[in-house]
Structure formats: C-alpha cells, structure tokens
Amino acid sequence: MFYDDENDKPREECGIFGVYSRHDNVALTTYWGIYALQHRGQESAGITVTDGTVMDIQRGMGLVNEVFRQGLPALPEANIAIGHVRYSTTGSSLLVNTQPLLVSYSGGQISLAHNGNLTNAKEIRAELEKQGSVFQTSIDSEVLVNLIARSKKTGVEEKITESLAQIQGAYCLVIMTGKELIGVRDPHGFRPLCIGKLNGGWVLASESCALDTVGAELVRDVEPGEMVIIDDNGLRSVRFAQGDRRALCVFEYIYFARPDSVIDGQSVYQARFDMGRRLACESGFKADIVISVPDSGTTAALGYSFESGIPFAEGLMKNRYIGRTFIQPEQKHRDLGVRIKLNAVRSVVNGKSIIMVDDSIVRGTTSGKIVRMLKEAGAVAVHMCVSSPPIAYPCYYGIDTAVRKELIAATKKVEEICRFIGADSLYYLSQEGLQDTLANIKFDQMCYACFNSDYPCHTPCDAEVSSAKYVFEPGSDRQRKGGAQ
C-alpha cells in the first residue's frame, strides 16, 4: 500500500480498460473508460489501438485529459483498444514506465496493461537478465511481457498461460494482439475486473463505473484464475489456474473503488454505508453532528448518521479544483497543504461536539491537522471514527505500502494515535464489523492482510506480528473492541 504524501491515504493502484468493437470508435471509448477510472491512478495514462495490421500507442505523464489534449491514437479502422491509468507501485514515476506496454516479438506485436503487483518479479527479472533479456523499464509488468515473448508455445493464448504459471502475486491484465482482446485475473482475485457488452462488442474494465460511463451493460466479473478471449467469434473463457484461496482486496470497498461501482456482486456504496452504520453501533459516540473527511469518508458518515440519528452536516469543505499537484508550502506554513484542500465551515462546527468519519489513517499527520483545524474553528470536541481497522502491515499486492515503521498503527497503540492526532476520542471499526458489512462476500474470500498479516500467498518478505486495540478515550479507562457498548 503506497501512501499519498499529500493526503495521507493509501494510494489507489491502477486502472485498466479494453474494448473490442466493429461499431464504435474504440480509441474514444477507451478514453472515456480510463477517464472514469481516473481515481485509480493520476500519474500517467496511455492507450493502444490496433486495426489488425499495425498498433498505435500514445502515453504520457499526467491526467487523462492532459495526456490526450492533442488527440487520440489515430487508426481509422481500429477495432481493439486498451487503456491504463497509473500510480507507481513497482517502478518509479517516469515516462518510460507508463503503460500500456507495446512490444514486437517473433509472434508479432502485443500490448499489455497491468493492475497489481508481481511479488516474485525481482527474482524472475534477474534470471531473465542472466539469459540475455534486455529491459527498457523498471516495472514488474515488463517481466510478464518478456515471459510471453520468450515462450516456446505456438499460440498467444498458450504463451500467456505458460507465463502466468511462473508469476506470483496480484494481477489483472488486459492484453491486445492484432486479432484478440484478452482479460486475465489472478487465481486469488486480488484486483477487480469486469466484463461488459457494448453495441455487439465487448468491454473489460477495472470497475463497473467505467462500463456505465461508456454505455456498456455489466455482464459479470472475470473469475479468479480465469482468462477471457474476445475476437470476432465473441467471448470464450479459459480457466488457467485454480486458486487455493479467493482474496479480493477489502480496501476496494473501503476506499479505492468509486462508490457507484459493483465489485463481485457487492455494491461499494452499500458496503461503505453499512460500515458507517456499524461504526455507530460499535463506538457508541454521541455528539451534536456527524461530519466526514470528504470525499472518501462521506458515505460511511451518512451511514453513521442514519444509524445514530445524529444529523449529518458538511463541516469540512473540499477544494475540488486543486488538481493533481501543487507547490508545497514552506515548513513554517506546514498546515497550508491541508488547508488548501480542506477548510472547516466555521458556522457549522463552532460550539459543536463533532463525530468525524474517515476511511483510514495511514501516518496520522493529516488527521492531526484536520482535528486542529476543526478546533480552531470552534469545535468543542472531535471524536474520530475510522471505517476500517488499523492499518498495521504492508500490502504486497499492488498498493505497495510504505515501510511498516511509517504506518502509525504498526508502532503506536490506539490511545497513542488518539493523542498524536489530538482527537478527544478515536474508534476504529472492528474487523468483525467490517466483515459483517460485506454481506455478499464470505470472509474467506477477502484479503485483510494489511490489518491482520494473514497474507494469502507469496510475499517478498515475512510479515511482522503485532496486536492492536480498537478504541481509546483520553481521560478514561475505557478500551473497547468489537460490539456496541
């Protein structure tokens, strides 16, 4: 899990999109598709198209509308396209590391876009380099491209299957050949990938919200260990692996996915609303108003308000026009980075006790600044509720966490975190409560490793073990874990 320096949040990983159509402008459809997935990656974007004979690619650093300001890849008869938006997980944020990747090999051309993180990529890359392979990027996705290109199998489908058998970790892929659009989801299903129907053609996307944007109908999710192949004959499915354990990342529901998406049959909005309701039951906090840290905490805050009967108010206003980056303030103005994005609404919070709902705390620095801002605006008390358990362990499956010592819950107990951020009380949703809010997905089909170190598959290093309590109120002896008090 790679934290966002500006927002103190886990960063989304990547978003992928693909379309096969004889009736639509596939480049434009892909543009709108990755635009809808912009929340999953804001460092770079790219699109590859093919007309069956040649491939054309355009990639760049920045947001989707910045990268394609001068136009889209132009092949008039193109019928296949794939797109990608990226945050760097493995590999630096450099132009050379942008995706999709496009390579030529003995079997022709192939373009690939990847969401996830290959946990054994370093070892495979070292071995390939010993054998003479040359790498142009520092990203793990190029390892997979090399394996496909070096495979002795005859067909591209067989080459991909053989290559997938050698890699470990998390991956969703859209792969484009001259004739086919291929979608792949790893055997554990760490990352989401869904299938849509569009004007007789097919669409693959990280989230269903992208299907809604381009007018496609959601058909189903790609199953863990499944490869779908789309060509002029339609869609067919190949099971390339049987996963020992299904393990969709629970943070898709807590933070990463757009609330209007549906993943593996579970509404993201409903999950977050129910997290807020469960928070109200577990914490038992009372106050004058409930507010959220916008926008990621809003749905859970609405759920908290609904369950508790405490009115919801907009106590923090977000500047939605700040863009992707801004000039960092000088040290003496260290709070300006938060204040330029968020500002307390004094008329709402002055003289009020407040329950503030957010989805997570990574380092605690931003939470502390927000609490201080609210109190300076006249809040008499700030009780913070978090709609996830404490993040105490790294993630190796595509959201690369900073080193563990930078995760505040890895080094501090909840009462220490509460004091650090200056809140009057702090409550984290219990893991049991989180599980109960995901009504359509069984506990053993989710990955909770960032909370409990129960890693579903291979990791680059052994996870450390620690424990965490869930709630603390300064000035009292109360420490609670689980159900309502």
Considering the chains and any ligands shown, give keywords for the structure:
485 residues; alpha+beta; Glutamine Phosphoribosylpyrophosphate, subunit 1, domain 1; Rossmann fold; 16 helices; 26% strand; elongated
Commentary on this structure:
It contains 16 helices and 26 strands. With 485 residues, the chain is an alpha+beta fold. It has two domains: 3-244, Glutamine Phosphoribosylpyrophosphate, subunit 1, domain 1 (4-Layer Sandwich), CATH 3.60.20.10; 270-438 and 455-472, Rossmann fold. Helix 1 (26-36) packs across helix 6 (208-214), helix 4 (141-150) crosses helix 5 and helix 8 packs across helix 9 (298-308). The relative contact order is 0.12. Mean pLDDT is 88; it is low at 1-6, 462-470 and 472-485.
Short description:
The protein is of the alpha+beta class. A 7-stranded antiparallel β-sheet has the order 5-4-6-3-12-11-13. The chain has a 6-stranded antiparallel β-sheet with strand order 7-8-9-10-14-15, with helices on one face. β1 and β2 form a beta hairpin.
CATH class of the largest domain: Alpha Beta
CATH architecture of the largest domain: 4-Layer Sandwich
> What share of residues is helical?
25-40%
State mean pLDDT (0 to 100 scale): 88
Biggest pleated sheet:
7 strands, antiparallel
Q: State the domain count.
A: 2
Low-confidence stretches: 1-6, 462-470, 472-485
Secondary structure category: alpha+beta
Gyration radius (Cα, Å) is 23 Å
What's the CATH topology name of the largest domain? Answer: Glutamine Phosphoribosylpyrophosphate, subunit 1, domain 1
Beta-strand portion reads 25-35%
| Major sheet strand order | 5-4-6-3-12-11-13
Indicate the overall shape: elongated
Measured between the Cα atoms of the first and last residue, the distance is: 32 Å
Count of extended strands? 26
Query: So, the CATH homologous superfamily of the largest domain?
Result: Aminohydrolase, N-terminal nucleophile (Ntn) domain
